[in-house]
# Entry
Amino acid sequence: MSIARVAFREWFGLRAAEAGILAALYQTSAGFLSAAQLARLAAVTPGSVSVHMVSLRQALDTEAIDSERRRGYRLTDEGRAECREALRQVGEELRRAS
# Structure
């Protein structure tokens, strides 16, 4: 399990599957990821990706995730910045706790 997945789960209050999808989106530099690619990377079923996207869009800013028919999903610049800030904040909390 990636550090990003754990941090996103805690910071945004996500379920494991949603945190996995968000981590996959954050960690890719490929642009768009299809539902099948996200499902494989997050260990969920392809049919459940759109359901998890609803929860992700509620947890993040409304403009954080972009989708295009036939291309898939990607983080917007705003979404990437929000994830980066979450990782920074979680890192700070961990440093203070140790």
Summary: Helices lie at 3-12, 16-27, 35-42, 49-59, 77-97. The beta strands are 65-68, 72-75.
